[in-house]
Amino acid sequence: MGSISVFPCVYLMFLLACISEVAFGKMVFNVMKDGATADGNTDNSEVFQNVFNKACQSEGRNVVLIPRGTYMLAPIVLKGPCKGQVEFHIIGTLKALIDETSTIDINHWITFQYVDRLVLSGGGKLDGQGPSAWDDNTCSKNPNCKALPISLRFDFVTNSRITQLTSLNSKNAHVNVFACKDMKFDHIHIIAPKDSPNTDGIHIGSSSNIQILDSTIATGDDCVSMSPGSKNINIRNVTCGPGHGISVGSLGGGPNEEDVSGLTVTNCTFIGTQNGLRVKTWARSYASNVFNLTFEDIIMDNVNNPIIIDQQYCPSRNCEKGESQVQIRDVKYGNIRGTSSSKIAVAFDCSKGKPCEKIELNNINLTYYGAEGAVASSCSNVKGIANGQQQPGSCI
């Protein structure tokens, strides 16, 4: 009897071991089994690199599992291409190192490159430990300032999804998307204090077919920003604030910049932000184009510049004044409502040399309750039409 009773126990242990390695048709690579230490002090970057390499070189569907606990992580580059699909399932918390070697003149914390069908998920947190580095951000005063790490970089990543994650207190921007295609960000939370420098939520450049859905972004800079080469970007059901709003630009800073086109922002809410919907180009710029932008069903709650096109952008003493050569056209604003914290709720300051064209305002209802008088709009070098309710009265 004794030998018979042992067999089911041994079989059960074997079965559980198999389940831990293969779950629902996926091969699971648990970082703890490769020596990761979740004590909040030990650098796990070498372990994470090794586990990613194993998953990346395996065919089929592969999961890098990061269980509960706190894992310190030095700057790391996880590079494909991979033989199969890789999912990073982050349940625990990843923490960035704060020493100078891991911070100053380093442009990344966690980078994914040349990966197709990547998934980041799990409900975990990425803590960039930004307060340790924000005093080192001198870029507002020094054009030759040294880089600080962006928490998550995606370079040449395709057909991928980032979901159910929280990014806290990045040292620089939280997420940077470069030369990527067909990426979806949904149900993510991006959080940093309103006075934290350059902590953009998601920055996009030279990328197409990017979706940002059902998320909350509260930072010290732009919630979402789009630089040259951003095409077919869809932002829906995002709450932004604090921060600088959703921005296209700055554009025109260099020769032969790629155009920006196909941006759609819908069903979004801005709370106490510096700007709402902003397009900005350098005051003296090179030539490029911005077109086919749509902003619809937007709520503004105490936003300083709810609707703004600024072609005289010059945030420091070092930039040159002059006429912007960026052509802005085919921009639609529909059903924008709420409150402005400044008297000028709609401001179009376009270039004299390249006036804004085909700007369309449909049903704008923005109020201002401050001491400067009735809410107003301001227009310079802009052509377009206004339909339906217009508060403030349209100056187009």
TrEMBL record:
GO terms for biological process: carbohydrate metabolic process; cell wall organization. Its main location: secreted. One of its GO terms (molecular function) is polygalacturonase activity. It is found in: Secreted, Cell wall. Gene3D superfamilies: Single-stranded right-handed beta-helix, Pectin lyase-like (2.160.20.10). SMART domains: PbH1. The active site is at 244. Residues 1-25 form the signal peptide. It comes from the Eukaryota. Pfam families: Glyco_hydro_28 (PF00295). Keywords: Cell wall, Cell wall biogenesis/degradation, Glycosidase, Hydrolase, Secreted, Signal. Belongs to the glycosyl hydrolase 28 family. This is Polygalacturonase. It comes from Quercus rubra (Northern red oak).
